[in-house]
From TrEMBL:
Residues 297-362 form the Cas12f1-like TNB domain. PANTHER family: RNA-GUIDED DNA ENDONUCLEASE RV2885C-RELATED, TRANSPOSASE. GO terms for molecular function: DNA binding; metal ion binding. Residues 1-43 form the Transposase putative helix-turn-helix domain. Residues 213-225 have a biased composition (Basic and acidic residues). Residues 173-284 form the Probable transposase IS891/IS1136/IS1341 domain. This is Transposase. NCBIfam families: guided_TnpB (NF040570), IS200/IS605 family accessory protein TnpB-like domain (TIGR01766). Residues 206-240 are annotated as: Disordered. Keywords: DNA recombination, DNA-binding, Metal-binding, Transposition, Zinc. GO terms for biological process: DNA recombination; transposition. It comes from Haloarcula marismortui ATCC 33799. It comes from the Archaea. The keyword Amino-acid biosynthesis does not apply.
Amino acid sequence: MYYAYKYRLNPSDAHRDELDRHRDICRQLYNHTLYRLNEYQDEHGELPSMTTLRSELPDLKKWWDGLSDVYSKVLQTVVERLFDNLKGLSKLKENGYGVGQLKWKPPREFRSLTYSQSGFKLDKKGGQTVLSLSKLADIPIRLHRAIPDDAKPKQVTLKKEPTGEWFATFGVQMDREPPQPPENPEKCVGIDVGILKYAHDTDGTAVGSLDLSDERERLEREQRKLSRKQHGSNNYEKQRRRVAECHADLRRKRRDFLHKLSAYYAREYDLVAVEDLNVKGMMESPSNSRNTASAAWRTFLSLVEYKCEREGTHFIAVNPGGTTKECASCGVSTDKPLWVREHSCPACGFEADRDSNAAWNILSRGLEDVGVGYSEPTPVETALPVDTPVSAKRVVEAGSPTLKERTASAVSE
């Protein structure tokens, strides 16, 4: 399997200047390659191949001062990056989206460069771990966790964040294959995500949403200060970086919470069933779009999916339509407004917490989709035992010691 390991770099001022210089050369090469692509298309009536444009690099070095200072593999990945962007536009066009043309990259939009296959290695120099980069420098790196011994680093991407920090992301290939999911899963869970409670599962656990109100107020305060600065001045640049740090703080805390929660479900259960939510469509709704964006449901589902694959756990994304309306006991649909937080079935009299009822329906659909260990599609009888508690047995607030204990082994990546 292919994994990514991200580490913080600790470059000196001289290293930062050299990193920025190499990054800007790569940006100019990207823009030049885009110019050559458009020129070739106008002359020949078709797009050139990636090999054609990549073969022009040796001739460019003869008249382009500074191009030879950058490692050759880094220059080749710049050309590959352009064609990857073209493939992305083609896929969007095939899916019915209106797409334009690729544009030239200004300095603020080209923030990374990639060493592929060679030109980089981890080394020990002066009593500290450094990342040795060909034709660049030996940059100190903070290895907060070790790369597994059986992992083969295939590439490393250096990226400058808007805060000015530099990070190195290693792409590694593992020799071992992930474990196979069990044929007859014993520990199964259905998860219903929401705003008031982030996750409500069929084991009776309700995980509170992460409270980021203080961080948002701080961000808004710093943004108001930025609006009063003169654009382009030194004070504007300092305040812009402060705003970027507030954004990064929000992002780190949210992803830390999502990593720990997703790792817990992937490691503790044999089967995880979730809703296949159309978050993009929900974001276009005029109401509550800010809370929907802050919840980052799509990110959470993506994290759960790849961690379930890594841990050998079944991952099922089911159709979310009607999971709140349907009764988990008899299957009868009952309309209820959003402010009604309890489910009460008029047909069978089954009463439960609204989110708990939805979680059981999600698990039932997941078991039906997998079809392992069950001879016929009877999701209600299979997923909901007679003596099942229908409300949350425990409510875990995000960031509380209880959640930290449950996710102690689920270290965020």
